[in-house]
Amino acid sequence: MVARVVPVAPFDLVVFGATGDLARRKLLPALYHRLHDGQMPIEARVIGAARAQMDAEGFRRLAAEALDEFVAPADLDPDSRRRFLATLDYVPLDVTKDDDWQALADTLGAPDPERPRAFYLSVAPRFFGVIAERIAAAGLAGAHGRIVVEKPFGHDLPSARALNQSLARHFDEGRIYRIDHYLGKETVQNLMALRFANALFEPLWNAHHVDHVQITVAETVGVGGRGPYYDGVGAMRDMVQNHLLQLLCLTAMEPPARLRPDDVRDEKLKVLRALAPVDAARDVVRGQYGAGPGVASYADDVGDADTRTESFVALRAHVENWRWSGVPFYLRTGKRLRARMSEIAVAFKDPPHSIFAGAGGRAGANVLAIRLQPDEGITLSMTVKDPGPGGMRLTPAELDMTFAEQLGGGGLRMPDAYERLVMDVIRGDQTLFMRGDEVEAAWRWVDPIIAAWEERGERPALYDPGSSGPEDALMLMHRDGRRWREISA
Ligand SMILES: NC(=O)C1=CN([C@@H]2O[C@H](COP(=O)(O)OP(=O)(O)OC[C@H]3O[C@@H](n4cnc5c(N)ncnc54)[C@H](OP(=O)(O)O)[C@@H]3O)[C@@H](O)[C@H]2O)C=CC1
Ligand SMILES: O=C1O[C@H](COP(=O)(O)O)[C@@H](O)[C@H](O)[C@H]1O
């Protein structure tokens, strides 16, 4: 089933780093899907740029291989594939060399106010400043051109601030798109629909009714070939500072007045600013996967027996405001865990009085779980009567809504986050992109935790690959009389 789409205007998109992993695995397939679904017009141009010497034909071959590898065969339509490849062009360009930029200027031509123009920086962050500067100096962006930057956006508050400042010299905030691909995930956007398009939940969405919130992003993969990057970063910077905090913000924020980018981002920023400082020793657990049968340890994966980088984090946070006073937000993320599962679970308080004291069976708390992946959907755990004539016995049951089945008769392809985000750049919609002050607020909260770890210099607790993480993470909740939800696919 093809999702309903509104075509965007013909555009020019320059992808710096077009031969790299992100471009091949995510960006080119995302653009292909948008063309196939009728959203990207064939008059659009995607101009790849990297140092590799090749012409447009060479880049089309590289892109064709990327589509064949990263688009599901059932979705790869030969006609759409051909039409997509025809939109591609290529300019060999070392972004640090002045002389190379003229060829890009010639290929792009003068900016046309009717034709959106965007520059996607799919390169290492050390190039962000120089690219922004050269684009501005050559007048390539015109008055409306947009710049898209990837993560990591800094590695602490000072570096994020410096990056913001270097971009701000050449682009105003309304033209800077900082990617957090979790915001492009269908179910993350659905969280806003669930909260603000239904009258049912909002009256319950507060400390009077919510016992706690659990946010889990569990992966089965290890660091793979990304060891050199990951070992200098760790799970806190790689996942918590951005993706998990963004999920927390969307769960905890007040209803924005409208669905305008800054209305939403203002509300998220207020949540980040309301986060209470955490005690790194008491409220945060860091772990590292050890070796398992047929599985190398994290230390082996990164080739450093003494590495102190964490591949797992669990923590307890509090949003100190009227709505959430006293409600713990438990966050956890890690690699090489039992299953790939990402969800936000809102656990409600028990009923104030039970009339079922003498009844048999088992009552469970109401939990609203928003499943981000896999099998995007929403479940609501309830307590119902166990069917049958055996008297009043209680049993847990679930209202289960899997989006692909409910909304697409089982045949709906869930678009990848990058499909939505790249089209939003072209449409000039910043709602799902992080504003500079949000990124800085997130680092301001995360930095002291990392500083405390560095001061202690301890190794993270080892956990078994395929497990739910280190024992201490279980204790973090047991101490509060609560339990993590199962990590299961
Ligand atoms: N890969 C992923 O899954 C994710 C990546 N990111 C971020 O996306 C960005 C790109 O990552 P990724 O694709 O993995 O990186 P790669 O190392 O795979 O690709 C880097 C790209 O940059 C180009 N490049 C390097 N130096 C220059 C230069 N001086 N001038 C012009 N082009 C240059 C390379 O081509 P050449 O050598 O030919 O110049 C290549 O196309 C990074 O910021 C990364 O953190 C974010 C999230 C996920
Ligand atoms: O940003 C990142 O995200 C991926 C997980 O993304 P998902 O869409 O597959 O859930 C993570 O593996 C990677 O380490 C991190 O940089």
UniProtKB/TrEMBL annotation:
The keyword tRNA-binding does not apply. Residues 192-485 form the Glucose-6-phosphate dehydrogenase C-terminal domain. It holds the Pfam family G6PD_C. Keywords: Carbohydrate metabolism, Glucose metabolism, NADP, Oxidoreductase. GO terms for cellular component: cytosol. Its EC number is 1.1.1.49. PROSITE patterns: G6P_DEHYDROGENASE (PS00069). It catalyses: D-glucose 6-phosphate + NADP(+) = 6-phospho-D-glucono-1,5-lactone + NADPH + H(+). Pathway: Carbohydrate degradation; pentose phosphate pathway; D-ribulose 5-phosphate from D-glucose 6-phosphate (oxidative stage): step 1/3. NADP(+) binds at residues 17-24, 51, 94-95, 151. Residues 14-190 form the Glucose-6-phosphate dehydrogenase NAD-binding domain. It is an enzyme of class 1 (oxidoreductase). GO terms for molecular function: glucose-6-phosphate dehydrogenase activity; NADP binding. The keyword Hydrolase does not apply. It comes from the Bacteria. Catalyzes the oxidation of glucose 6-phosphate to 6-phosphogluconolactone. NCBIfam families: PRK12853.1-3, zwf. Belongs to the glucose-6-phosphate dehydrogenase family. This is Glucose-6-phosphate 1-dehydrogenase. It comes from Oceanicella actignis. The lineage of its organism: Bacteria, Pseudomonadati, Pseudomonadota, Alphaproteobacteria, Rhodobacterales.
